Amino acid sequence: MLTFAGMSERVGGLDPDERPGLIGQAAISLTAWTERWVPDAFIFALLATAIVVVAALTWTPATVGQVIDAWGGGFWSLIPFTMQMSLIIITGHVLATSGPMRAVISRIAGWPHTPRGAVALVAFFAMASSWFNWGFSLIFSAVLVREVARRVPTVDYRALAAASFMGLGSIWAQGLSGSAALQMATPGALQPQIRDIVAAGGIVPGGIIPFTQTIFLWQSLLSVAIEIAVVTLVMWLATPPAGRAKTARDLGVDLTEREPVVVSRGDVTPGAWLEHSMILPLFIVAIGTVYLVRYFMRVPEALNAINLDTVNLSFLLLGILLHRTPARLMHAVQGATPAVWGVLLQFPFYAGIAAIITGTHLSQKLAAVFVGISTTTTFPAIVALYSAVLGVFVPSGGSKWVIEAPYVMAAAHSLKVHLGWAVVAYDLGEALANLVQPFWMLPILGMLGLRARDVMGFTFVVALVLTPVVLILVTVLGLTLGYPF
Question: Which of 2-6, 184-188, 294-298, 455-459 has the lowest mean pLDDT?
Answer without folding.
Answer: 2-6
